[in-house]
């Protein structure tokens, strides 16, 4: 999976591309830790537009990010959900844990 980070006006957008699974955990953590450490960032958006697969370890990574973000006083939201990825996140009730945008 490839991850790009774009920080603009207090919002850090992590755009994911490919399979979001256990093998992605180091890259994902590295990407969001930079956003968590930046005092100017108030919201972290995870863009799933180009994600075609995610597994249970990805769900765990999102929950860990949510926990760390709350401790840092930052919001986390999910965007670009579609197809199987959207179904998995809906079944897991992530819409109750995260703000979801289009």
Task: Please describe the topology of this protein.
Elements: E1 2-8, E2 11-20, H1 25-37, E3 43-54, H2 56-72, E4 75-79, H3 83-91, E5 99-101
Parallel strand pairs: 2-3, 3-4, 4-5
Antiparallel strand pairs: 1-2
Helix pairs in contact: 1-2
Sheet with the most strands?
5 strands, mixed
Secondary structure: helix percent = 25-40%
| Total domain modules | 1
Mean pLDDT over the residues: 95
Question: Going across the major beta sheet, what is the strand order?
Answer: 1-2-3-4-5
Order of helices and strands: EEHEHEHE
Round the Cα radius of gyration to an integer and report it: 12 Å
Strand tally, please?
5
Outline type: globular
Named CATH topology: Transcription Regulator spoIIAA
Question: Hey, roughly how much beta strand do the residues contain?
Answer: 35-45%
CATH superfamily: STAS domain
Tally of helical segments? 3
At the first level of CATH, the class is: Alpha Beta
**Level-2 CATH architecture:** 2-Layer Sandwich
């Amino acid at each position: 999976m490839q991850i790009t980070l774009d920080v603009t006006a207090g919002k850090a957008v992590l755009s994911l591309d490919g399979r979001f699974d256990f093998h992605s955990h180091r890259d994902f953590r590295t990407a969001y830790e930079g956003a968590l450490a930046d005092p100017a960032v108030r919201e972290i958006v995870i863009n799933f537009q180009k994600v075609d697969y995610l597994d249970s370890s990805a769900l765990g990574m999102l929950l860990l990010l949510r926990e760390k973000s709350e401790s840092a006083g930052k919001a986390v939201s999910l965007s670009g959900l579609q197809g199987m990825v959207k179904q998995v996140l809906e079944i897991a009730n992530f819409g109750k844990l995260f703000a979801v945008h289009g």
